[in-house]
Amino acid sequence: MNRVKEDKNIIIDVHLDGQEPNDLHAELRTALTSTPRSLPTKYLYDDRGSELFEQICELPEYYQTRTESKLLSACADQLVSMSGAEELVELGSGAATKTRLLLDAMARAQQLRFYVPFDVSEGIVRRVAQELAKEYDDLQIHGVVGDFLAHLEHIPEGGRRLVIFLGGTIGNLGQEAARSFLSSIQKEMASGDFFLLGVQLETDIHRLERAYNDAQGVTGQFNKNILHVMQKLVGATMNPDAFQHIALYNQAKHRIEMWLRSVKEQKIDVPGINLSFTLKKGEYILTEISTKYDRPRAETLLEQSGFQLVEWFTDPEQLMGLALARKP
Known about the structure:
Blueprint: E1 2-7, E2 10-14, H1 21-32, E3 37-38, H2 47-57, H3 63-83, E4 87-91, H4 99-108, E5 114-119, H5 122-135, E6 140-145, E7 161-165, H6 175-188, E8 194-200, H7 205-211, H8 218-234, E9 243-250, E10 255-262, E11 266-270, E12 275-279, E13 284-291, H9 295-304, E14 308-314, E15 320-326
Parallel strand pairs: 2-6, 3-13, 4-5, 4-7, 5-6, 7-8
Antiparallel strand pairs: 1-2, 8-15, 9-10, 10-13, 11-12, 14-15
Helix pairs in contact: 2-8, 3-4
């Protein structure tokens, strides 16, 4: 771990440098030799990928972010009152745009003490920490740079807190992985702490697919950025121009699937993991899933992970859901 105390109110812990090369190589080899081939979704979110995702959130087709923001704005004071939290821990914090709605509510209630942004992008954790330290007087910030699927134990200990996982990011995990991840979060929390889960709800298929196939092509750039990451990380000879961005809704599995489709037959070398293979023209590589929920399935997921549902919030169109739960 690398710890940096940036000023009197900011500490940043970096855990990604400690990842064992053999573990990384095994992960990538397994993904690229699976059927269908895939790449771990976390590699979409390097610094450049995080910037592109911020742009996606501003697109007219991508209704999810603005809908969840409006919902949070409407219920933020109630969430803070019900949880009594003085500390906010955010998994997958990104630019923390929506987070400010909760921080503002905590400040209004005179309960704002401590914030933990947890993200895979070191650049964005540092940027958010600096911004929020200027916006909120005396707010203590302890950033964690890491993979929240592997580094949850590095969340700093604290007092009465609300842990949040927003944006429907839980949808990026398969059913068993989602249950395992939420169970891991529950184990790291203290009894009586609260957890806020944001889920994207099932809606019109055309609306869903448009959200991942924007007219400006930003989501395509975001998807192909993972190939630049593979070039830097393991020397993969993957030319983004040789792939097409594809995003389709899988009704049977209740999820958007994001793919990279090879536009020609091509030989791929990945010297960093001693792997070579041939992609056929039209062959797909899976880069992300985004499962859509309804209230019963979201409640079941929380209950199976050891949480007690306290309150459910949704917008008038029922596009997004916020589930406030508690560790018994």
